[in-house]
Amino acid sequence: MSPDRTVVPPNDTLQASEATSGPARHPAGASDCRRRPRLSPVFPPRHPRVKRFERLDEATAPDGTILALCRHDGAYVIRVAGVELMSTRRHHSEDRLAELVCAPLANIAGARVLVGGLGLGFTLRAALRALGDDAHVLVVELVEAVIRWNADPAYDLAGPALRDPRATVRHDDVAHVLAANPGTFDGITLDVDNGADALTTAGNARLYRDAGIRTAAAALRHGGRLAYWSAVPDAAFADALRGAGLTVELTRAPAHATAKSGHALYVARRAGESRVNVLGPPAA
After folding, report:
1. How far is Cα 92 from Cα 253, in angstroms, rounded to an integer?
2. What is the DSSP secondary-structure string of the chain?
3. What gap in Å lies between CA 123 and CA 129, rounded to an integer?
4. Domain limits, the chain
C-alpha cells in the first residue's frame, strides 16, 4: 500500500454500508450517482534542508593541531576538532579589536602596528581602514596554510588586504617577532587563540602569561597600545596584565551585530605613558 495516498474502501464495502442504511435514493431511471471521495496526496512534513560543511583544505599547526578550512552556506569557517574557531559571518569583535588600537593612530605619522594572527583577515582589514596612508602593518601568522588560504583567489577572503602596500605578512611565531623588536610598534593586536585558555596551539598560552605579556609590552613604543582578543572575560588574565605594570580597559564586543553576548577585548598601556609622535626603528 502506498503510504502517501488516502485509503478508499473497496466497492463491496461501500455496497454493504449502503445496504444497512436502506435503498439508494436516485431519480427514476438514473444511473448510480454515488461519488467516490477525491484522492488527496498526503505529503510528509517539510524540514529545512541542512546545508553541509564543505571541507576545502586542512593544515597542521606546529604542535600537531589540525585546522580545517570549510565552506558552509556561503561562509568560510576555520574549525579545530569540529569546533568553529572563526567565521566570515561573525567578525565584529575582530573588527573592533583593530579599531581600539588603530583609530587613535590615524594621525600618527608612520604608525607601525603588529597584528598577531591573520585568521580570516578581518583584523588586518579593519586596521588598514583606520590607519593613514603612510602606516605599516606587520601581520604574523604561525600556520603557513592560513596565509595561503587568505591569498588564494579561489576563496573570497583577505586577498585585497594582503596586496595593500601598507601590509606585510610574515610566517613566524609572533612571540619571536615581539622579542626581536623592542620599542618598535605603536599598536599590537594579539588574536592568536581563544584567549588565555589556548584552543588551537598549546604554545600560544605563553603569550598570556607574565613573561609573554612583558615581552609584548616591551615591543611597544612610548604610549603604544597592546590589545588581546578573548572569547570570554578572564579576571586572572586582567590581573596578569596589571601585574606587568599595565593599565587595562575591558571592552565587550559581539561576534556579529545582533549577538546578545560579547567577546572580551583587553586594551593595555604602560602606566603613566602618553602618546609621543616620534619615529622608531623598523621591525626586524
Report:
1. 7
2. --TTS-----HHHHHHHHHHT-S----TTPPP---PPPP---PPPP-PPPPPPEEEEEEE-TTS-EEEEEEETTEEEEEETTEEEEETTB-HHHHHHHHHHHGGGTTSTT-EEEEE--TTSHHHHHHHHHS-TT-EEEEEES-HHHHHHHH-TTS-SSHHHHTSTTEEEEES-HHHHHHH-TT-EEEEEE-SSSSSS-SS-GGGGGGGSHHHHHHHHHTEEEEEEEEEEESS--HHHHHHHHHTTEEEEEEEEESSTT-SSEEEEEEEEETT--------PPP-
3. 10
4. 90-270
List, edge to edge, every strand of the sheet that includes 136-141: 167-171, 136-141, 112-116, 185-190, 220-230, 262-270, 246-254
pLDDT at position 216: 97
* Residue 260, pLDDT score: 67
- pTM (predicted TM-score): 0.77
CATH code assigned to 90-270: 3.40.50.150
Q: Which pLDDT value is given to residue 264?
A: 93
Residue-level pLDDT at 82: 83
Contact present, 36 and 13 (Cβ < 8 Å): no
pLDDT in tens, 78-94: 999 888 889 999 889 99
* Spans of the chain, pLDDT less than 70: 1-50, 194-203, 256-257, 259-261, 274-284
